[in-house]
């Protein structure tokens, strides 16, 4: 496709005829007809689909209209013809044309051609005029876009009802703004000096309308009600504002057909600068001849606006006096002596409150009345949303150096408003200006702080001003610009902990809030939105760091990353712009210290500072996890060690925390050989509240609950907890408090090892439960016996490792460790089950990882007997106090089996009470050593001790025939033993305890003496005498023992005492 920059080619009739026969002519008028057809019966409010290209075209039209706003007309009252400022506007469009077209996704090489049509759509620069030829250029521009394929037939209805309508509105503004001359006055039937196509398209809209007929254009109510729905009626409304419109055709279809023929005829005649005898003149009623044959004639707009000035003699007061609605306004003007002032103004606009507006404010000050007066004439259709008007109320120094008129803001929503008043009528004309009727007396702006407090959604910003004592400066200062941030923006940008911090003294919160708020303040001048230049600029702030201000081509203003959502909230001493994002200066930063203050953990902050631990909370590059109790839960007696126990190196998010996890704190002690003390993490299972589907996981740090969600700050994280953490206590204190470890504590004190255990550093202790000591049976009695003290020490030492090993440190499989006495200890891990391999079996950790001040304690279910410990029959019998049994074994010459025999034996050991019963109560006496030996051998079984089971038989040393048999007492759940085949009147002997030796032998303690088969009822007097002697000695020993027992119980009330 080739592109050519358009130039004027139709200079003669021959050229015109040639053009009529061209494809371009056919395409152009066919395009007009298709557009016309698309809008038949359609209202302006008809829902249209706007493609992305159409949206961009609308943006281009808005941009052109903004050029007009930025280039107001110059003072040209002495001329009735076009305002020279139009040329600046035209040049701006021409200069920006190529840039405007770049967003339309068209070939770059096409832009020079089609932009020429676009530029010519806005009028003639030289003559400052506009006509249907320029209108045709706009249609030609749209046709070019269709030829380029970026718009199509689906867009036709939107092209008319949205694009062309917006173009028409921009042109009306240009015509009014710059008093454009009509280019040849080729308007439709002379109705309109400028346009044709809105009447064509508008009549198509009205085809088939049930009620509106062509003659309805004379009905003011119809025009007022339907001008917003139909282009034709909108044009009539505009024309009626400057001249009279007439129309005599009866049907809209005929109107539309006739206009289409007329448009072709007019565009087929000589236009513009071509002057010949075939030129057709069509004029509106009452209009002078235009500049068609070299004679300058003003447009109807120019005549309307300027002619009145020259001929009318009506003043503001004349207009007001003719209308009873303004009686109270006139009274206030008289009282404030402003009538002469008004009458002598060369040009002004007055906002006139009606009588009802003065109902609650009967007397208005002169200054406030001046706030109703503008120093230029401004018509009702010249108002636009956000427009700032300068009033005659001049305030010394408040808005800048010298006297500067206070501003009045226009807002357009459901109507037109100025300040707090709604405009209810416009354009009551006087010779020196225009009056607009309003429903309220205008209120002059409050001071800047008062204005801020009146704006919804600024509560947090206002509170920061109060807290920082900046409210007085905002209230009484001069020429202030405030970029006020909404509550939503502050809540979005600052976490609740940061907002809380900025309201308090802890950590310098108020100082930081001052830095933040001063960064939103500019005191050098009042910066209205209209004063912000397009592009990016820096604005100095009270804080020192500049704000970055950007204004785009559409007038949107951004402050740093925030969009100004509410511009120009006027104040007596400045202006306020509401922003949806707060600009944060580099001087404001957050760290752990400040977050702790914001989380109301100020007391632990004071502790960190007091004990010179501030490095943990000040360094923004460091990474720590802080467990901080709230102020109401903090123990104020906490010292350095306790505070360090609340700090963990590294950042542990919730997902990093696992149940039964141990985290290393910053607390290091000599007891741990300078290793880090640990805290335990517990993750409790989810729970669901009754009648509530919300589940929650509770996190514990030691015994303190985590409150709420943690808060992250940089590389660190803070958890609020329910109490001050206490470092683990010493091992002895813990063991004494734990009742299931009473036997282990007794063993420590009995072995005189309490000091050694207490002072051991960086150790692991395996603490057997009370039931674990029960499991080793009669061995416990021996270990707690004075004769077993050394062996007991070796047992206690065998439960201590010379390093701290938590279960998480134990790898899978078998691992070797050394106890403090040098013996090896094997630990086997199978999944989560951990066993300690010991000489007497396996010990399982049943409660792991109890932290102590010197390491860790694991509770186990078995007593660990060292491999070097030899438990013999002799030791067990001594431990249980089997004095009689020991002595009769000696009599029977069996003492050698008690020490350390190569073969194991089982001793059935009746208690001394059992022997006393058989001797005294049964009057049994054994006076022969052979008979004693026979009795003893019946109580000795060769071999190892098996598991007890009902019916188990044992041969004895007495003979193979003299066997003992085990019976289970199902009723009482105990085992008993009897002589096989012997009827025993005394009953079976109950096994009351078992103690196993190192080589597999054992001592079974029983409550009765077993008698050989056919034992005579009387035993020899020799044995009786021996036994009586033994028992007497035993009773003496028992008496002493009982006394010792009560003495020791008394001593234990004070504390554990070693057994000497």
Automatic annotation (TrEMBL):
- A GO cellular component annotation in the UniProt record: nucleus
Q: Which residues form the FAS1 domain?
A: 313-442, 445-583, 592-725, 728-864, 869-1010
Write out the catalysed reaction. Answer: [protein]-peptidylproline (omega=180) = [protein]-peptidylproline (omega=0)
**CDD domains of this UniProt entry?**
PTPA
Q: Which residues cross the membrane?
A: 1022-1044
Q: What is its EC number?
A: 5.2.1.8
Where does the UniProt annotation locate this protein? Cytoplasm
Q: Name one GO molecular function term.
A: protein tyrosine phosphatase activator activity
- Look up the domain of life of the source: Eukaryota
Q: Entry's PANTHER family?
A: SERINE/THREONINE-PROTEIN PHOSPHATASE 2A REGULATORY SUBUNIT B, SERINE_THREONINE-PROTEIN PHOSPHATASE 2A ACTIVATOR 2
Please state what the protein is called. peptidylprolyl isomerase
Native species of this protein? Diversispora eburnea
């Amino acid at each position: 496709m080739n592109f050519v920059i358009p130039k004027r080619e139709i200079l003669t009739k021959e050229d015109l005829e040639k053009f009529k026969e061209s494809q371009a002519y056919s395409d152009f008028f066919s395009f007009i007809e298709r557009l016309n057809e698309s809008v038949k019966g359609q209202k302006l409010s008809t829902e249209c689909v706007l493609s992305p290209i159409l949206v961009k075209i609308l943006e281009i039209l808005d941009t052109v209209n903004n050029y007009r706003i930025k280039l107001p007309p110059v003072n040209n009252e002495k001329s009735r013809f076009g305002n020279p400022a139009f040329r600046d506007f035209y040049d701006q469009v021409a200069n920006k044309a190529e840039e405007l077209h770049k967003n339309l996704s068209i070939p770059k090489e096409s832009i020079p051609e089609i932009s020429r049509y676009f530029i010519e759509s806005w009028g003639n620069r030289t003559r400052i005029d506009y006509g249907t030829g320029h209108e045709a250029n706009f249609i030609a521009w749209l046709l070019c876009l269709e030829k380029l394929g970026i718009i199509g037939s689906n867009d036709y209805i939107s092209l008319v009802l949205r694009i062309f309508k917006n173009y028409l509105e921009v042109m009306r503004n240009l015509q009014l703004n710059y008093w454009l001359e009509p280019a040849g006055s080729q308007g439709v039937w002379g109705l309109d000096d400028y346009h044709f196509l809105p009447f064509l398209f508008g009549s198509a809209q009205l085809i088939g309308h049930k009620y509106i007929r062509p003659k309805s254009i004379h009905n003011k109510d119809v025009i007022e009600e339907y001008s917003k729905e139909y282009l034709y009626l909108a044009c009539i409304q505009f024309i009626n504002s400057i001249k009279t419109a007439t129309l005599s055709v009866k049907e809209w279809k005929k109107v539309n057909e006739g206009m289409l023929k007329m448009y072709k005829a007019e565009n087929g005649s000589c236009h513009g600068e071509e002057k010949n005898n075939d030129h057709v003149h069509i004029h509106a009623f009452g209009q002078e001849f235009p500049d068609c044959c070299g004679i300058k004639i003003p447009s109807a707009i120019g005549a309307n606006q300027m002619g009145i000035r020259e001929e009318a003699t009506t003043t503001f007061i004349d207009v007001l006096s003719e209308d009873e609605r303004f009686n109270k306004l006139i009274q206030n003007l008289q009282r404030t002596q402003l009538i002469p002032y008004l009458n002598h103004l060369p040009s002004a606009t007055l906002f006139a409150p009606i009588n009802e507006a003065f109902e609650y404010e009967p007397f208005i000050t002169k200054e406030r009345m001046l706030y109703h007066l503008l120093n230029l004439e401004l018509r009702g259709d010249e108002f636009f949303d956000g427009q700032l008007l300068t009033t005659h109320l001049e305030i010394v120094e408040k808005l800048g150096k010298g006297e500067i008129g206070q501003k009045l803001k226009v807002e357009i929503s459901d109507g037109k408003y100025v300040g707090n008043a709604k405009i209810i009528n416009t354009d009551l004309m006087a010779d020196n200006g225009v009056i607009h009727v309003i429903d309220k007396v205008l209120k002059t702006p409050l001071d800047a702080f008062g204005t801020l407090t009146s704006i919804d959604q600024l509560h947090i910003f206002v509170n920061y001003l109060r807290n920082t004592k900046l409210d007085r400066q905002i209230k009484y200062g001069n020429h202030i610009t405030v970029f006020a941030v909404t509550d939503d923006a502050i809540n979005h940008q600052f976490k609740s902990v940061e907002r809380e911090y900025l309201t308090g003294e802890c950590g310098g919160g108020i100082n930081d809030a001052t830095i933040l708020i001063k960064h939103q303040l500019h005191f050098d001048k009042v910066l209205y939105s209209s004063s912000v230049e397009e592009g990016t600029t820096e604005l100095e702030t009270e804080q020192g760091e500049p704000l970055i201000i950007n204004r785009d081509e559409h007038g949107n203003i951004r402050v740093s990353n925030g969009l100004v959502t509410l511009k120009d909230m006027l104040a007596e001493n400045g202006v306020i712009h509401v922003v949806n994002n707060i600009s944060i200066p580099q001087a404001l930063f957050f760290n752990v210290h400040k977050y702790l203050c914001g989380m109301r953990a100020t007391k632990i902050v004071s502790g960190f500072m007091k004990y010179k631990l501030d490095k943990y909370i000040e360094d923004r590059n460091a990474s720590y996890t802080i467990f901080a109790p709230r102020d109401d839960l903090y123990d104020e007696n906490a010292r350095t060690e306790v505070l360090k126990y609340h700090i963990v190196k590294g950042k542990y998010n919730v997902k990093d925390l696992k149940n039964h996890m141990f985290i290393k704190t910053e607390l290091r002690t000599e007891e741990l050989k300078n290793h880090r003390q640990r805290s335990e993490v517990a993750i409790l299972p989810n729970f669901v509240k009754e009648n509530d589907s919300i589940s929650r996981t509770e996190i514990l740090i030691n015994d303190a609950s985590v409150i709420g969600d943690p808060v992250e700050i940089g590389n660190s994280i803070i958890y609020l907890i329910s109490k001050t953490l206490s470092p683990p206590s010493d091992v002895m204190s813990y063991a004494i408090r734990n009742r299931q470890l009473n036997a282990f504590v007794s063993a420590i004190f009995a072995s005189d090892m309490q000091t050694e255990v207490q002072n051991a550093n960086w150790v692991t202790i395996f603490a057997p439960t009370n039931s674990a000591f029960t499991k080793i049976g009669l061995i416990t009695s021996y270990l707690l016996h004075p004769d077993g003290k050394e062996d007991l020490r070796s047992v206690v030492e065998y439960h201590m490792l010379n390093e701290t090993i938590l279960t998480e440190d134990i790898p899978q499989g078998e691992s070797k460790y050394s106890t403090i006495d040098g013996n090896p200890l094997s630990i086997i891990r199978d999944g989560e089950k951990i066993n300690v391999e010991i000489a007497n079996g396996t010990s399982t950790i049943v409660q792991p990882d109890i932290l102590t001040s010197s390491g860790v304690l694991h509770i186990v279910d078995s007593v660990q007997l060292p491999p070097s410990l030899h438990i013999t029959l002799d030791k067990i019998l001594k431990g249980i106090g089997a004095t009689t049994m020991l002595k009769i074994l000696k009599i029977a010459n069996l003492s050698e089996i008690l020490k350390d025999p190569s073969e194991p034996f089982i001793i059935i050991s009746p208690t001394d009470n059992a022997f006393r019963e058989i001797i005294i109560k049964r009057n049994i006496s054994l006076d022969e050593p052979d008979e004693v030996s026979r009795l003893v051998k019946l109580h000795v079984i060769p071999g190892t001790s098996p598991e007890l089971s009902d019916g188990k038989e044992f041969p004895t040393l007495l003979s193979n025939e003299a066997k003992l048999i085990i019976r289970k007492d199902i009723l009482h759940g105990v085992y008993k033993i009897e002589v096989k085949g012997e009827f025993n009147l005394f009953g079976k002997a109950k096994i009351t305890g078992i103690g196993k030796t190192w080589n597999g032998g054992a001592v079974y303690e029983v409550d009765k003496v077993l008698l050989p088969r056919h034992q005579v009822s009387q035993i020899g007097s020799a044995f009786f005498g021996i036994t009586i002697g033994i028992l007497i000695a035993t009773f003496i020993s028992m008496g002493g023992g009982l006394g010792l027992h009560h003495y020791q119980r008394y001593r234990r009330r004070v504390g554990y005492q070693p057994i000497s």
